[in-house]
Specification:
This protein is of the alpha/beta class. Helix content is about 20%, strand content about 25%.
């Protein structure tokens, strides 16, 4: 259950804009650097079906290996405990969940990976627009930290190797692009972890499901 700290929320809203140059970048190698042997678990057929390969999209998407993902991060319908109205998207950075609030007192809950310490953010914003198979353009500040990204200064073409994955939701506060995104990433071991430079990541099948159900303009709360 999410407990919303309103004072922290107001402070976080300012922090979101102040740290907006963090940007997004996630790679499989960053997850492997955690160094631990993955724990595998049995996967019920209905869960395997939710995360099956997608072969009729613009690019093929492999099945997600859910034996690598703890059960609490599998997509499921749960009671809406967020206190937010229907249509809202709520990201709980402590428990690593994203909630899409429905109009029946329920919410769809997804497991997510979040930004590592130093790139975390919180506050209120909105989903300005959505993109299918988006380009990825690293911010200038990120290129300074990682000069090898210079070749992508004007964008990386969409596709399976693009770190934005098959779908992305673009987060704005007012008329300002925060440079944060909610997007896909195929590395199962990043779900439930704090690895990337600030963005919220879902498995490809989950970001497609969220993309298909959320509307542009929807309010976003990160706590």
């Amino acid at each position: 259950m999410i407990t919303l700290n309103r004072r922290a929320l107001l402070a976080g809203s300012a922090a979101l804009l102040a740290s907006s140059l963090a940007g997004c970048a996630t790679t499989a190698s960053s997850a492997r650097s955690q160094g631990s042997t993955p724990v595998r678990r049995p996967v019920p057929p209905e869960v395997a079906s939710m995360y099956a390969a997608v072969l009729d999209d613009e690019y093929p998407i492999r099945a997600s290996d859910m034996s690598l993902v703890p059960e609490q991060f599998w997509r499921q319908e749960v009671p809406n405990t967020t206190g937010e109205p229907a249509g809202s998207v709520v990201v709980d950075t402590t428990d690593r969940f994203l909630y899409h609030v429905r109009d029946n007192g329920m919410a769809t809950r997804y497991g997510v990976g979040i930004g590592a310490a130093g790139f975390s953010w919180s506050g209120r914003a909105h989903i300005a627009y959505k993109r299918s198979w988006p380009r990825w353009t690293p911010p200038s500040d990120m290129i300074k930290r990682h000069p090898e990204l210079e070749i992508y200064r004007y964008g990386m073409e969409p596709g399976p190797e693009n770190p934005m994955g098959p779908r992305a939701l673009y987060i704005h506060q007012g008329n300002k692009d925060t440079l944060y995104r909610i997007h896909g990433n195929e590395d199962e071991k990043t779900i439930g972890q704090a690895i990337s430079s600030g963005c919220v990541r879902l498995l490809p099948q989950d970001i497609i499901h969220l993309y298909d159900n959320v509307r542009s303009g929807s309010p976003l709360l990160v706590v």
